[in-house]
Amino acid sequence: TMERVSDVLAWVRPSGGTVSFPWFRDGRDSRPFCEALAVEGVLVAPGDCFAAPEHMRVGFGAQADGYADALEIFERTLRRQ
Questions:
Q1: Which residues, in sequence order, are CB contacts of 19 under 8 Å at separation 6+?
Q2: What's the rounded Cα separation, in Å, for the pair 39 and 68?
Q3: Is the pTM higher than 0.70?
Q4: Collapsed DSSP state (helix, strand, coil) of residue 53
Q5: Using CB atoms within 10 A as the burial measure, which of 53, 59, 63, 79 is most buried?
Q6: Closest Cα to residue 80, out of 19, 16, 2, 8?
Q7: Rounded to 5, what percent of the chain is helix, strand, coil?
Q8: pLDDT of residue 62
Q9: How far is residue 24's CA from residue 44's CA, in Å, rounded to a whole number?
């Protein structure tokens, strides 16, 4: 999925673990996007919680059920922002 949204988000593929920290290429604050995701039922931590507002903390792989749906919601919401 990250390849499909690489025009908007950049990231470094984690070498291990289940967390990534992508960022908006244009430097915008991630909080409005994270809030829009929360309304859709997908929780992502905004980067201002980590002193990096353009980033977001995304966990993955912890729950198989619904994960594909969450990715679809993530991309759809991203394209609307």
A1: 57, 58, 59, 60
A2: 17
A3: yes
A4: coil
A5: 53
A6: 8
A7: 35, 15, 50
A8: 64
A9: 14
